[in-house]
TrEMBL record:
Residues covered by the NAD(P)-binding domain: 6-173
Name of this chain's protein: NAD(P)-dependent oxidoreductase
PANTHER family per UniProt: NMRA-LIKE DOMAIN-CONTAINING PROTEIN (PTHR47129:SF1), QUINONE OXIDOREDUCTASE 2 (PTHR47129)
A Pfam family it matches: NAD_binding_10
Species in which this protein is naturally found: Streptomyces virginiae (Streptomyces cinnamonensis)
Length: 274
């Protein structure tokens, strides 16, 4: 059986939708989520390690549970891997972060999890996902005045459509043996910068400073870890650390060209309602 965790999240729900339609595996896939309420769904909450039960699971598609301080995220992923070892899971497919993101503080729990898997007796595959085009749509949408002030400077991001990452993740998880021991860098094929984003949505690009962004992000509803997470994302893009395009891995695993990230950006930015 294949168990997909995080099935209600943005990435997990795309994978689950594809998996539900997949011919030949109608009963062989379960969808793990903290609050199950649909067919094939089972409760999986890494914050409740004693409740984890992966009995009968052959392949675990472990969607990272990345929101929180490092110790919390590491504890979650550690609990998942330990339960996989205990319950006889054969192969873990883990959604990580692109190596180009090593300057981002939230890379640390991803690298910890990769190291934990490498040191285990489990078979594993690491999907090093690039930053989503959808994330860019949220972080660099124009304001009501039609101006994009996201502090991207002259930097560009090799953003990738989340749907492409879902497609690759499911494909790998359904045939894991062919991908054992592989670390795949999954980034977009065309880096996008502020001016290009603005042109795509009929906006003007006038990047602000990181300090202004930090102030804007530090509202009363923000968890303490959130502003640094987002500000360092802007900073890494602006400094040019995230602009290396796909060298063919994503295209090869998809078996076609990646979805155009600029279109995904424009659609997400429009849906953000500003
Ligand atoms: N590459 C990028 O641009 C990017 C952007 C944002 C996040 N990420 C990372 O990639 C992951 C998936 O992205 P996403 O877009 O699907 O994020 P999302 O929509 O915010 O979903 C968060 C995910 O974390 C899971 N989760 C949270 N707490 C959990 C827990 N205690 N136990 C088990 N699962 C837990 C959720 O599962 P349920 O709700 O189903 O329980 C859900 O799948 C994120 O969690 C984060 O680590 C990557």
């Amino acid at each position: 059986m294949l168990l997909i965790t995080g099935a209600s999240g943005g990435l997990g729900s795309l994978i689950a939708r594809r998996a539900a339609d997949h011919p030949g595996h109608p009963d062989g896939i379960r969808f793990g989520t903290r609050a199950p309420d649909g067919p094939g769904q089972v409760r999986v909450d890494f914050d409740d390690p004693d409740s984890l039960d992966f009995t009968g699971v052959d392949t675990l598609l472990l969607i990272s549970a990345g929101y929180g301080e490092d110790d919390r995220v590491i504890a979650r992923h550690g609990a998942a891997v330990s339960a996989a070892e205990r319950d006889g899971v054969r192969h873990v497919v883990y959604t990580s972060l692109t190596g180009a993101g090593d300057h981002l503080p939230y890379a640390l729990p991803h690298r910890w999890t990769e190291r934990r898997l490498r040191g285990s007796a489990l078979a594993w595959t690491v999907l090093r996902n690039g930053l989503y085009a959808e994330l860019l749509g949220a972080l660099a949408a124009p304001g009501p005045d039609g101006v994009i002030t996201a502090p991207l400077g002259a930097g560009r991001l090799a953003a990738v459509a989340r749907e492409d990452l879902a497609e690759v993740a499911l494909g790998v998880a359904l045939a894991p043996d062919a991908h054992a021991g592989q670390v795949y860098e999954l980034v977009g094929d065309r880096p996008l910068g502020g001016a290009e984003l603005a042109a795509a949505v009929g906006a003007r690009y006038a990047p602000g400073s990181l300090a202004e962004a930090r102030t804007a992000l530090s509202g009363p509803d923000a968890a303490p870890f959130q502003p640094p997470m987002l500000v360092t994302t802007y900073s890494a893009i602006a400094a040019g650390f995230l602009d290396t395009p796909d060298t063919g891995t994503l295209r090869r695993l998809l078996g076609r060209s990646p979805r155009p990230a600029l279109e995904v950006y424009a659609k997400t930015a429009a849906a953000s309602g500003v």
